[in-house]
Amino acid sequence: MPKEALCLKISKEEAEKAIILAHKLEIVDEGLKVKRNQESIYIPLIRHPSKNELGALQGQIQKFEITTYTFQEKEKKPKTLIEHLENKLPPHLLASLPKAIDFIGDIAIIELPPELNNYKGMIGEAVISVHRNVRTVLAKAGAISGTYRLREFMVIAGEPKTWTIHREYDCQYHVDIAKAYFSPRLSYEHSRVASLTKEGETIIDMFAGVGPFSILIAKTRGNVKVYAIDLNPYAIELLEKNVRLNRVEGKVHPLLGNAKEIIKERLVGVADRVIMNLPEKAIEFVDSACKALKPEGGTIHFYSFVNASSSLEDIKIRFTEEIKKCGRRLGKILFSRLVRETAPYEWQAVIDVEIL
Hints:
It contains 10 helices and 17 strands. The protein is of the alpha/beta class and about 350 residues long.
């Protein structure tokens, strides 16, 4: 819509310099488009420049004029899904729009309630419009299941793909969420555990996936050895790529297979620290984690689920009992917290313990 406004009129030769200076002086009206004709440039202003601002302009621009001109308003870009869709969706469905979006590289992942299924393409395009770095929008099409902890996805907008490169804490990861588990919601845990490691440590990442714990540890410390184990051959394939991509060869050692068997065969008594990020089944691997630790002891980062029927204290008690069965002794509980909500009334939890 045309709008008459105060402006700075200058010659084309001095346009770039004038635009930079006007922005520095914070006098540009960002809601209007700069106009041009054959001889001049017109920069819309939010107000008349002060005496000092006019002095600054005169010091750098040979000839200018404060006048009025007719401008076009810039198209206002919606900042949220609701803003983008408020005139496109039936009003009663706006409250059902996803509140949370997971971003993995240039892929956005949303959970659509059934009542929005007929509008999935429109919603996907809105996500791309609001989040300009997104090239693919996926909707969850099932729960996480199976040995490899995977779920099905449906492409609802953008490029039909599940592969991307994800960046996190100065690390880069090849990720294919259709083939190997990865959660961006664990980024703080990746950083927290890496910050606790010490130079010279040997770490066993029992369920390493594509390597977000292992690789960040190797990037954080100059002298560590990380054994990164996973049962999923696709995860190991991506992990090997990520080791090269992040230049941590010789520090991270990918191992394909069952963590129990690999520890029993070659990693008994070698670790200062063990990471057990398999909340569904980690309790079944406590014996292996204890065997992996050095005789003098070490640290275990244990992940599990807490729900309406089992509190964090209940998980601590069960975990402690499993440690005693292994013939090891619990030194102390170093840290515990709820990491993230994974379903209604269900949370992923972490317990850090010192084992003697």
